[in-house]
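Before relying on records like the one below, remember that each one covers exactly one chain. Contacts with other chains, cofactors or solvent are not represented anywhere in the record.
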Amino acid sequence: MKKFLIIFCCFITVFAYSVPEKSKKVITFKADIASYQEVKSKNVFKGQGNAYLEIDDYKIYCEEIEIHFFKDRNGDDQIEKALFNKTIRIFNDKEQVQIGGEEAEYYREEKKFVIRNNAFYTDSKEEVAVFGDTIYNYDEEKVTIIQGNSRIYQKDIFAKGAFVKYTKSDKQMSISGFPTVRNQGSEYSARKIIVDVENNTFILQGDLSAEILNNDN
């Protein structure tokens, strides 16, 4: 028990020291069991069981966490990346966004998440949910990319395709890779479909095909 407490306290100290003074933010880590090891001259902290990490604008819950550090030019420890496994839930309260899956990586310098295996992305403000094989979330660029078996649910719209690019600046989702969209009983396909999530509308571009429901009175 004493060994665990020493490791845990050292971990918190390194976190506070690893953030530059001019941009210092509180970084919080919790887990049932924590350990430390050096791998190829890099420091790695691991947490298992009810693991939690609060970093930048994100709160991450999962079962397993690995946090990798590197030495900067001053010899100080800086966070390179964090790896997450099992029942992952990532919250950004500022953007009202939730991301999840079973495997995830966070690259701190790029502020990029990569989520795999039952991956999903929800934007509660715009009432949109997206599911796919792999999700790439770029925080600084305000762009989210969903690859493989992508499905979009947005109010009355259901769309799917192989590739989705969500640009948050204009609130549009560009869908390609044999995309289709369903709305109020009608189904449309095109070379590219753009869903305007803010206005709950969509645009069809190239090779349009439609099956439109006509309700006879």
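Residues 1-23 have pLDDT under 50 and may be disordered.
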